[in-house]
Amino acid sequence: MMDTATLFGLCAAALVGLGLYAFIVNPQPLRKIIAFNVIGSGVFVLVGAVAYRGGAAGWGGDPVPQALLITGLVVAFCASALAIALLQRLAREAESVTLASDAPAAPPATPE
Amino acid sequence: MNLADLFTVAAVCAGAFFFLAGSVGLLRFPDALTRLHALTKADNLGLGLVVLGLLPRVDGVLGGLKLVVIWLLALLASAAASQLIARAVKRSEPGA
Amino acid sequence: MSEALNAGLALFVLALAAWMVVARDTFAAVVGFVAYGLLLTLVWVQLHGVDVALTEGAIGGGLTGAMLVAAAARLRRTEAAARAERPGWPTRAAAALLAGGVTAALAVAVLALPVPAPSLAPETAANMGATGVGNPITGVLLAFRAVDTLLETTVVLLALIGVWSLAPDRVWGGRPGPRHRADPNETLAYLARVLPPIGLVVGVYIFWVGADLPGGKFQGASIIAAMWLLAVMAGLSDAPPISRGWLRLALVGGPLVFIAIGAAGVATAGAFLAYPDGLAKLLIKAIEWALLPSLALTLALILAGVPERPAR
Q1: How confident is the model at residue C27 (pLDDT cuts 50, 70, 90)?
Q2: CA-based end-to-end distance of chain C
Q3: What is the tens place of the pLDDT at every residue in C143-190?
Q4: Does the N-terminal peptide bond of residue C276 adopt cis geometry, omega within 30 degrees of 0?
Q5: Is B80's CB within 8 Å of C190's CB?
Q6: How is chain C split into domains, by residue range?
Q7: What are phi and psi of C219, to 5 degrees?
Q8: Is the minimum CB–CB distance between C191 and chain B shorter than 8 Å?
Q9: Considering the entire predicted model, what is its pTM?
Q10: A70 lies in a domain?
Q11: How many structural domains comprise chain A?
Q12: Is C195 on the interface with B (CB under 8 A)?
């Protein structure tokens, strides 16, 4: 049987792959933001597995990478928030949220 | 295995059974309102039994109080959430 | 036994992630993401990162999930058109190949991790005494890597400025989000009256124990922010116009105290963000107390979103 770090490390590798696939294939921008978060969580779990292996001095995990993970989670939240705000502004201005380069031009925005 | 352990095993198993029943209800019941019924009844009772089963194992009164507070908060949240979902269902399909 | 549980947990996480990829409806994928966040908290507990688990539950699953739910509901009418742009099979095959390659490379790296594992835990343990706090994560965040934490709070603030700057000119300085109105006798209003006092106590408690046990300011601030958002959503309170002076001051107050204490370290201890001997715990607590309200307000306003209504 695999040890915990290897198990969740491999799980993290698969999460990054799944997220990357979804990031490319799903056309909806909101789905891409979710996929970006799945990739991010895969990277975090990978670092978490490394931190788990570094457990010593009476602690179950190495506190330095764990502290970095907390910082990473907060920064990922900030990036998602900004991306969602951009997306909603795009939806309001253009009535559609396509990322396709050959999409029909958006109707001119009504003057406010 | 002493009496407290026996109690824990029995209560947690009963709680797990209610979780299972609730999940089966969630998957098998025909519409949103009956699914809510399955979830709230079974999960609240399930979580309550799990908490009850874990109470003899905590060290100190504070830990036990925390467990009970978690159960009460879950009760409050699930009751309010199912009310809101039921209202949304009613609004979206006036016939229901 | 616990190995089997771990394997089941990992499979469950992977299945949910796969489901998020293939789900047709974006809203369903969002709901999947919230459940995924909750499962990840269990993964963090199994990886002995209880602090990370709390952050994942509060921010990764909680706040990000709430934000995604709101966005999915608002973007629903664009859904059908965007779905039609699904790429053809050559792109999908290439994407699968790329994703498989990345996974394989990462898996090889995981299997080849060095033994014994490099660790900074012994050095952290040896120096924890200097910080005066008992939770190693708090020690690392506010003493050994305090510059990271300062930059992190700055990033949160910058994200808020970025969100605000997307406001149309006409409502610049106005109130974020729609004005929620709910029946004062309705369940949501009841919940918004009962829960915030409890949530405030829980949030401050999680912040308070962060010095010695798992917990901390980001987790506590997320809970407090969620309580305020609940009151806003129930129509009991309204988001303030973003042009208010007190609001701006409250937002930058925490980071400014952090920078001031850091700058004082240059004079008293010889380096930016160095603490004089014996005062470390006091200064760390001062920084945390200053950061908590600023962070709670910043997180709440990020979730409240882009200003949409004039201040009047």
Answers
A1: confident
A2: 62
A3: 788 888 889 899 999 999 999 888 888 888 888 877 877 776 778 888
A4: no
A5: yes
A6: 1-86, 120-312
A7: -65, -45
A8: yes
A9: 0.88
A10: yes
A11: 1
A12: yes
CA distances to A47, B81, C247 from C293, rounded to whole Å, are 30, 28, 11
Q: Is B87 on the interface with C (CB under 8 A)?
A: yes
Q: Of C28, C160, C235, C163, nearest to A88 (Cα)?
A: C163
Residue A99 forms part of a structural domain: no
- Beta-strand (E) ranges in chain C? 175-176, 307-309
Average pLDDT of chain B?
84
C69 CB within 8 Å of a chain B CB: no
Measure CA of the first residue to CA of the last residue in chain A; give whole Å.
64
Q: Does residue C117 or residue C9 have the better pLDDT?
A: C9
Q: Could you tell me which residues are beta bridge partners of residue C309?
A: C175
Amino acid at C266: V
Task: Assess contact for B65 and B51: CB atoms under 8 A.
Answer: no
In a domain, A104, yes or no: no
Q: Cβ C141–A67 below 8 Å, yes or no?
A: yes
CA separation, residue C164 to residues A101, C126, C233, C298 (Å)? 27, 44, 19, 11
Grouping H, G, I as helix, E, B as strand and the rest as coil, residue C47 is coil
ipTM score of the complex?
Answer: 0.89
DSSP annotation string for C170-182 = GGTTSEESPPP--
- Chain C residues touching residue A102 (CB < 8 angstroms): none
